[in-house]
Amino acid sequence: MKLSTKWLNDFVNIDVDPQEFSRAMSLSGSKVEGIEKQRDNIKNVVVGRVLSNEQHPNADKLRLCKVDIGGKELTILTGASNADVGALIPVAVDGAVLPGGKEIHAGMMRGIVSEGMMCSLKELGLTTNDVPYEDGGDLLILREECEPGQDINDLFLLNDTVYEFEITPNRPDCLSVRGLAREVSATFEKPLTLPSPKIKGGGGELPLKLRIDNPELCPRYSARMVRDIKIEPSPAWMRARLRAAGVRPINNIVDITNYVMLEYGQPMHAFDYACLEDGQIVVRAAREGETLYTLDGQERKLDANMLVIADAVKAIGVAGVMGGANSEITDKTTAIVFESATFNGPSVRKTALRLAMRTDASSRFEKGLDYNNTIPAVDRACELVELLGAGIVYDGLADVNRAEPFKREIPLNSAWINAFLATDISKSDMERYLRLLSFDVSDGIVSVPSFRPDVEGIADLAEEIARLYGYNNIKSSLPDSSVTGRLTERQIMKSRAAALLRSYGYSEMLTYTFISPADYEKCNIVKQKYVTIENPLGEDKSVMRTTMIPSLMATLASNSAVRNQEARLYEISPVFHPVNEKLPDEEQTIIFGGYGGGIDFFELKGAVMALAKLFNISHIRFAEKMNNYTFHPGRCAKIYCGENLLGIIGEIHPAVGERYGLEERVYAAELSFRLLFDSRGSEPKFAALPKYPAIRRDIALVCGVDVSNESIINVINDDLLESVELFDVYTGKQVSEGQRSLAYKLMFRSPERTLTDSEIDERVDKIIGDLNKKTGAVLR
Question: Is the CB of residue 334 less than 8 Å from the CB of residue 274?
Fold first, then answer.
C-alpha cells in the first residue's frame, strides 16, 4: 500500500523527517518497506519559453532555439518540429536528472554548444493519462498556467513523498489512506480528522430497485445514482494522488471509484444505468453455464458457486472481482449507479482463482471488509462527483443490510497484560493507547470497532498496547518456566534413521508432496485413489501423493539427465491416503534407492535390516511379491514384522525406468515410518558374556526353487538354538533341475552347561525331519 504524504495530511497533520517517520511506523506495527521522494526522479527541469527558432547553420535537421527559463536565456539545439516561438515547454538544464537516472549536460553539436534539452512527455516519465491534453508532438507543449523558471515537479505536483507499507492480511483496514491515518495519529499522538461526506443532491427520487438473493455471500449492498454525467479528465490534484498511489488515471468517473477505494479501502464500481433491465440490481448466484464478457474483454464462463451482480435478465458483473462490459461507462452514458458492497471473502477468492482474474478489488474483498464502510464510501464518491462538477446526485440511497451487527467487548485486565508482556504499564496508559487506536474503553470494558475484527481476545489487546508502548521499551527476558524443550522419541528415531541411511551412502532429497496423476501411470500404478487439490499450482502438482516412488524416480531421472553415473537417494516425508470425505490420512514414509555403482537388491536389504536393528525389531521377514507392476516381477518382496506389512523392496520394472529415461537398473525400498516406530522393540539390555562354548553345525539342504529362505528359517526352531544364518545358495549341475541348495550355519549354546555333540546331533536330526515334512527339503 502506497501512502501519499499530501493525502495523509488531509486527515492528520504530520511534519516528520521521512526516515524518522518510517522508523516510528515500523516500530508501531506498520512496516514501511520503501520511501519515494518524487523530486528525486526529476531534477533541474524547469518551464521554458521559446523566444526564437532558427535553422542550424551547419545541420539541416537541427533547429537553433533561444529559450527563457526565468531571467536566464539558454541556447538549445533540437530536432523537434513543434518548438514554436512563444511555446512553454519543459527544459532540462545542464546537470538535470530525468526518470531512470538519465543525466543531461551541455554539449557541442555541429559547432554550437547546446545548454540543455527540451523534453517530451515520455522523457519526463509521464503518459497521456497524466497529461490528458498532450497531442503526441515531439515536445510537450504546456497548457497549465505557469511561468518560465518554474520547477516542473511543482507544475505537475510531482513534489510528494510516498511511503510503501507492507500490510498483513489481518489488517485490511490499513489498505486505505484513512486506515493508515489512524495508525499515524496513534503512533505520533496527533489529532485525527475523519470528516463525513456531505452531499447536496437535488437529482430527484432514486429510480433504482435493489435485491439481495444470497445474503450469506453479500451481507450488505449500498448504491447511489448520478445523472447528467460529464465524462472528462480528472483534475490535476486527483491525477497526482492516484499516480502517487500507483494507479493510472483514466477519467473522472473511473478515477473517483479508484480514489474512494484507496481513501476508504472500499472497492467501488460504476454501472451505466441505461444498461440495467427494468432498473434493477439483483445480487444472486450465477446460473450454471451463464457467461459474461468482463471489462477486460474476456468471456467468462460462470457456475452456480459464483456470485454475480445482475439486472432483471442478465449478469452485469462478477461480484467483488470485475464489472461486465455490458454495463460499462461510455461517452454516451448519462446516468450511473455507484456500487458499494461487502462480499464473502472466501467466495470472492475462489471465484477470482477459478476465473484467473485476481484484481485490486478482489484482493481487498477476500480479506474481509467492514460492512459499516459501504455507505460512507458511496457517499464520498457522490461528494467527489459534485466537487468535480461531473453530474447531479439523485436524492436517497438504496441499501440492503443483512449483516449481523458487530459487537465485541473484551474486559481490560491490566495485571494479566503486564504479566503477559513483562511490563509495568499503568491501566490509564493502556486505556489511552487503545483510545488512540479508536477502541472505546468504558468501565474496564473494551469495545472493538467493526473495522478491527482481528482483535478477538485479551492477547490481541496486549499486542495493540505493546506496539504503542514500544516493543523497544520492553526489556528482554527469558520465559519464567521450568519446562525445557526436547525432541520427542519419534523425532529422535526419525533423525537416527536419516543418519543411518546417510552412513550407507544415501544422500537426502526433498520433494513436493504434490504430484501429477500421470506420475502414477508412469509407475504402472493403476486405479489409485488419491486426494485432488482444489487450487493446484498446476496439473503437474494437482494431487497429493500416496507413494513416494514417483518422487524418487523423478529425482533419479534428474541426476541421470546431467550424466551422474550413480545416485543413491533417500527421503523421510509424508504420503497421504484418502479417508472417505474427511481429511486424508498423513503417514510418514521412508524411501531410499538408486542406480549405478553396483547397487543391487541385497544392498537395499542390508539397509532395511540395519533400520530394523535401529528400531530393535528382531523378527523381520521378506515375502515374495508378484503382482506389483511398479517392480520387476520376481525381484520384489514385501517386508513384514509379524503380520504388519512394513513396506516393499525390489528392482524397479524396466518399463518404468525407461519412461523416466533411466537405462541403469533402479532399486528402491519404501517403508512406513509409523509402523517401524510402532513395531520397535525395547531398549537393549546388558547381557554378560556366555560362560559356556557354542557348538556350530552346518547343514546344506536341497529344496525346490519356490521354497523361500524365510519359510525354512521359520521351521528351524530349538530352545538351544542361538542363531541361524544362510551363508550359501547354489544352483547348478550338482542339484536337479528346478531345485537349489541352501546352506545354513546353526549355533547352539546353553547358558547353564557345556553341550555334547550327541545331543546336538539329535536336535539337528529333528530339525531336518521337520524341514522335510513342512517344506520338502532334504539334507544334501
Answer: yes
